[in-house]
Automatic annotation (TrEMBL):
Keywords: Cell membrane, Membrane, Transmembrane, Transmembrane helix, Transport. The chain crosses the membrane at residues 21-42, 62-83, 95-113, 119-140, 152-174, 186-204, 314-332, 338-361, 382-398, 404-423. This is Putative MFS family arabinose efflux permease. It is found in: Cell membrane. Residues 24-426 form the Major facilitator superfamily (MFS) profile domain. CDD domains: MFS_MdtG_SLC18_like. PROSITE patterns: MFS, SUGAR_TRANSPORT_1. One of its GO terms (molecular function) is transmembrane transporter activity. It holds the Pfam family MFS_1. It comes from Nesterenkonia sandarakina. The lineage of its organism: Bacteria, Bacillati, Actinomycetota, Actinomycetes, Micrococcales. Gene3D superfamilies: MFS general substrate transporter like domains (1.20.1250.20). It is a multi-pass membrane protein.
Length: 432
């Protein structure tokens, strides 16, 4: 239910803030649209770049091809941290706009890249763009909806982002097949960036006042679990609590890292694995789109479901489902087999992705929530680099399927860690 209380927004003069999805529906929907454009920036290249590496740049070593995924993941992880700390200090909207400015050269660099170094450099800029913009839209949506609908908010946010990854991956693959690997697929990125700058600069409003309102109304848990998490934690304390000390936050951070390890591995490896069966580019595009497509659509259900049944069991089951899906993919050699595996992988990811963000929102105090989201996303997006390194090294040494088997084992271990370490973070509101 929407909160009727109001508070002055320090960044907006006399403008008042109200918490709740219905009270902020227009801004929330706008931020969902912006996050879809963020996801589309990744989707424009996922299907195309591994094929571009082999056909135009004549790269054959898997570890070398995956350098662009590692570069993306490391820079995105670093940008996530700064997005959290700077948005808490200076406000959300300026960080969102700066993030989109980093996206401007990316499609042009991919179109005109004379060697693979340009592709890696473009992905460094893309990582900064994704870290600043995606982290900021996550925090802004949590600001707007308040404490009761975090799962739903994160489900809508991530569904938009990864749904756009899927749709754009499919569209980019079609454009590549019809018009060549360059420049047609990357023209999508130019259009997305222009539209996002317009929406973010003109129509998006600052949401830090909503976080200040929630902080003023903040009620600690009745069971005392969070008594050590005060409003005035330093940056170092937030980093330690989110990474190591606080059981739910640290369990979420490791699960997020493993999830994106799987995504990073799939990004660089799946198109090459699927190509071993002499599939057409359209078939490869469909297989690659199924994973984020099911992931994106599933979050429309799982985010809200976590608000009803809790977070922990969804996350544990989701990691176990990912492990099973990777086993199916690793043992496959045909389109239908791989399609079943990618659908299952998307379903498992949908169970955990918005739920992990909701866990961070549940535990972190509103005064340092932006920083906690940033730290969590640092660990999560380091998974891109971990997946690229693990996938590249194992694939070079033992083959493509072996790399997928290795990721399956890591996912199973992660599920066990969540089952043992995480407590249930979602408390249903009192009916009184």
């Amino acid at each position: 239910m929407d909160t009727s209380a109001r508070a002055s927004d320090g960044k907006a003069g006399t403008r008042s803030a109200r918490l709740g999805l219905r009270a902020n529906l227009a801004q929330f929907a706008l931020l969902v649209a912006v996050n879809a454009l963020v996801g589309g920036m990744v989707g424009q290249q996922q299907t195309v770049l591994p094929l571009l590496a082999e056909s135009e740049f004549e790269l054959t070593g898997y570890s070398f091809i995956f350098t662009y995924v590692a570069a993306f993941g490391i820079t995105k992880a670093i940008a996530n941290y700064f997005a959290g700390t700077l948005s808490d200090e200076y406000g959300r909207k300026p960080i969102l706009l700066i993030g989109w400015l980093f996206a401007v050269p990316v499609p042009l660099m991919l179109i005109f890249a004379p060697d693979w170094g340009w592709v890696v450099a473009a992905n460094v800029l893309l990582g900064i763009n994704q870290g600043l913009t995606w982290s900021t839209t996550v925090v802004m949506k949590i600001d707007l909806v308040g404490p009761t609908k975090r799962g739903l908010a994160m489900g809508l946010n991530e569904a938009a982002g990864y749904g756009a990854v899927a749709v754009t991956s499919l569209l980019a693959g079609y454009l590549a097949e019809q018009y060549g690997l360059r420049p047609a697929p990357f023209l999508l990125g130019l259009a997305y960036t222009a539209l996002a700058l317009l929406l973010s600069g003109v129509f998006v409003r600052e949401t830090r006042g909503h976080a200040q309102l929630e902080a003023a109304q903040h009620q600690p848990r009745d069971d005392g679990v969070h008594d050590h998490l005060h409003a005035d934690l330093t940056n170092r304390q937030v980093m330690l609590q989110t990474s190591l000390k606080e059981p739910a936050l640290s369990a979420a951070s490791q699960a997020g890292l493993v999830n994106n390890l799987n995504f990073g591995l799939s990004w660089g490896l799946f198109p090459l694995l699927f190509a071993t069966a002499d599939l057409t580019l359209s078939q490869v595009s469909v297989l690659f789109a199924l994973y984020p497509g099911v992931w994106g659509a599933g979050q429309l259900v799982t985010g809200a479901l976590s608000d009803r049944i809790g977070r922990k069991h969804l996350i544990t089951a989701g990691m176990a489902t990912q492990a099973t899906a990777l086993m199916v993919i690793a043992s496959g050699d045909a389109f239908t087999h791989w399609a079943a595996g990618t659908v299952l992988l998307g379903a498992g990811t949908a169970m955990i992705y918005p739920t992990l963000l909701a866990v961070v929102g549940d535990v972190a105090h509103p005064a340092w929530r932006g920083r906690a989201v940033g730290v969590y996303r640092v660990w999560r997006d380091l998974g891109y680099a971990a997946g690229a390194v693990l996938g590249g090294l194992v694939a070079d040494a033992l083959g493509l399927s072996a790399a997928v088997w290795a990721a399956a084992v890591v996912s199973a271990v992660s599920a066990a860690v969540v089952a043992v370490r995480m407590y249930e973070t979602h408390q249903k509101p009192s009916k009184n």
